[in-house]
Amino acid sequence: MTMRCPQCWREMTYDQMMAHSPRECLQEPEDQMPHCDSYVLHAPQTCTYCDGYPWRQRGRREAKILFTGEGEREGWIPCPSQLRRPLESIQQWPGNRPTTPGESP
Fold first, then answer.
1. What is the average pLDDT score of the chain?
2. Among 24, 50, 51, 97, which residue's Cβ finds the most Cβ atoms within 10 Å?
3. What is the pLDDT of residue 13?
4. Rounded mean pLDDT of 36-47?
5. 16, 2 in Cβ contact below 8 A?
């Protein structure tokens, strides 16, 4: 099974994805990710900060990669951050939690 890197969208195997560094992908300012964990990306209208990255949200949807905190869907790849650790662990760091209007990540 192959998956796409949420930053550079390169197709790779699970083992390659686990060894792949997000920093390798972040070359340009538009390549930046909204949260401290660069694999965290919330669904549209779930996080005001992630909503500032509509091309990232659109890309995840097109690649059939679940958003952070989203339940399972048949035929979709799990959130890359949640492949590494459970959601509870991801959200322990405030910079990875979804934001609401007036909050900063």
1. 81
2. 50
3. 84
4. 88
5. no
**Maximum pairwise Cα distance, the chain:** 41
Per mean pLDDT, which range of 22-26, 56-60, 87-91 is the poorest? 22-26
Spell out the residues 6+ positions from residue 38 whose beta carbon is closer than 8 angstroms to its own.
Answer: 6, 7, 22, 26
From the CA atom positions of the chain, what is the Rg in Å? 13
E-assigned strand segments in the chain = 2-4, 11-13
The neighbour count for residue 14, using CB atoms within 10 Å, is 12
Q: What is the pTM of this model?
A: 0.66
Output the six-digit token pair for 27.
């070359």
More confident residue, 34 or 29: 34
d(CA 84, CA 47): 21
Q: What letter does residue 77 receive in the DSSP assignment?
A: B
Both structure tokens of 48: 């005001």
